[in-house]
Amino acid sequence: MKSSDINNKCANIIGDFSKGKEDRKEDNMFYPEEIIEEVRQRNDIVDVISSYVKLKKTGSNYMGLCPFHSEKSPSFSVSGMKQMYHCFGCGVGGNVFTFVMEYENYSFVEAVQYLAERSGVQLPKVEMTPEAKRQADIRNRILEVNKEAAKYYVYQLHTKQGEKALAYLKDRELSEETILKFGLGFSSKYSDDLYQYMKKKGFGDNLLKETGLFTIDEKRGVNDKFWNRVMFPIMDMNSKVIGFGGRVMGDGKPKYLNSPETRAFDKSRNLYGLHLARQSRSRAMILCEGYMDVIAMHQAGFSNAVASLGTAFTGLQANLLKRFADQVLLLYDSDEAGIKAALRAIPILKEVGLPAKVVSLKPYKDPDEFIKAQGKEAFQQRLDEAMNSFYFEIKVLERGFDLSDPEQKTKFYNEIAKKLLQFTEKLERDNYIEAIARMYHIAYADLEKLVNHYGAQMVVTPNMERRMQQEQRNQKKEDGLRKAQKILLTWMIEEEGLFQKISAFLTEEDFKEEPYHIVAQALFQQFREKQEINPAKIINQFESKEEQSEVASMFNRDLSEELTKQEKERALNETVLRIKSHSLEYRKSHATDIGELQNIIKEQAELQKLHISL
């Protein structure tokens, strides 16, 4: 391929890294509610989702295969009338903003901007403070320099001086397509090559120093941070080049070198390859050690692989993974350092609610080596056979004991019992006791007794026990109340005629639990003002995906087939009575004068006459 063709091709690829997003600044941005609603109304949800998912008209709704989990039978419902979607399989749901955020992994602001551009809505310019604007401008200028550097490195790889670097990548059996896909490049052996290029591009020394790509010293002058290295551009999840990693050619030290942290690059908040892995639609992410591991796996078809950036795995990275995954497969090197890295990552993932499994690559050191030796099918089998993370921890623990020695064996069993206490839910703990007892041929009763022995050392006084029992009763009561509020709001949404009857007994203030209080406020306001509901607009009031899905499920539940008319009427009255009784008790406990208390007692007495007829 000619160097001019390479230059054009790499310019297109690196250019695509941030295509359409340069102007999407998120810092402290917001738009007026009326603008957000206009954008939503101008983007019909059926049209938008149809561009991603094949939908088929079924009754008044549209059905298709859910894009957020694997399924063979359609359970993904889109309502043109309500302008909402809901999956009856995995429970996700929301409005058109929610869908774009979930599918494209956009922030809310990016989703609004994307849909505004799609529908031709002109968004107002949002003013930033002078300092915020200055910081944002510096960050954007750093990203400009990084983008130019990435293109320059790609070009250098395909010149004569990049021949050895290109040969190294070819020797690693990377295809030309993979090399270009990941934007791999080469930094010249001349220590100021990139600097001279950037000066010709018009970038000043103050900005170049901020990028971390150069060292500027009064005595020694300016030097490139990376030289004579194969270059790995590091992208954030929106495909913007935020930093670089470089592998030295030859015997230089260090072998791998990463960009320092800058206003654009925070190692603890990013993962290598996530910009590509998030497009895999897999809800299981593979967490590797290095850049080449990720690249080799993507080339082999395992496009859900990512890696931390030369530092220990962090809680911020775990939270980032949680946005895209329901499970993590740990694929660290099979040496001692890799085992320790896996043991550190497991509790971090558990802390954010991500279950982990550990993949064994033995006798091979890393995934690249395994795939080359055994092939994709064998590698997939290793992924399928990944070990439960708790079993992995126990197996590593076992290595510290001689199980042929009765004393050592007893100590090992005691350590297992202590570790089993990490499972606070009794059912889960019992399941693991049973599994571990079977694994090590221990009598279940003996292991359970040992676990309870160590659990009893966590002293519980009678007062603590009574408080715990009371908390459990309160939790059960609270769960029942939440369910009642959710069911009643669903009825009001599905059958608008109920609003007049129910509003004679309840107001939005009687719905105490979140998110139902917010939903009730919005519904009562819409009924009073327009005598109609706008479900998709209500969704905009919630930020988290969990709350949006919870509210969407209320708007997409059909109660008509679950109960007969008599059962429905009885349930409706019991539900209204329960919600109102709880609300009055709450007001009673917070009453400030005798007159208010007397009114509440009077309302409680009148509740006995409550009856709503259908």
User: What level of helicity do the residues show?
Assistant: 40-55%
Rg estimate, integer Å = 30 Å
Unreliable stretches:
16-29, 470-478
Give the DSSP E fraction (strand runs of 2 or more residues).
Answer: 5-15%
Q: What would you call the shape?
A: globular
Give the beta-strand count: 16
Largest sheet geometry? 5 strands, antiparallel
Give the CATH class of the largest domain. Answer: Mainly Alpha
CATH architecture of the largest domain: Orthogonal Bundle
Counted by DSSP, the helix tally is 27
| Strand line-up in the sheet with most strands | 1-2-3-4-5
Structural class: alpha+beta
Q: In angstroms, what separates the terminal alpha carbons? A: 77 Å
How confident overall, as mean pLDDT? 83
Reported by name, the CATH topology of the largest domain is DNAb Helicase, Chain A
Number of domains: 5
